[in-house]
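Title: Comparing notes on inverse folding

I've been comparing how different people in this forum approach sequence design from structure. To keep things fair, I'm posting one structure and asking everyone to reply with a full sequence. Here's the target:
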């Protein structure tokens, strides 16, 4: 999730991407729409990545618990 935020900052070293839209919008006179066009997709990607990681963690915990029960013999 942090990596997604870091990529938005990457525009300051010439990487481009959605961070470039955010910076261009902040430099424009009325750039609210441009800022949102970069910020909303960036935020959505971060939230979706977090939700996906939570889901993966839950699945792995279930597998771990099942294997521990087999070892104990419950």
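Reply #1:
Here's my take.
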């Amino acid at each position: 999730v942090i990596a997604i935020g870091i990529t938005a900052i990457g525009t300051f070293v010439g990487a481009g991407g959605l961070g470039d839209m955010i910076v261009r919008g902040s430099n424009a006179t009325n750039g609210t729409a441009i800022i949102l066009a970069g910020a909303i997709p960036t935020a959505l990607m971060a939230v979706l990545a977090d939700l996906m990681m939570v889901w993966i963690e839950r699945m792995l915990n279930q597998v771990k618990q099942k294997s521990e029960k087999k070892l104990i013999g419950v």
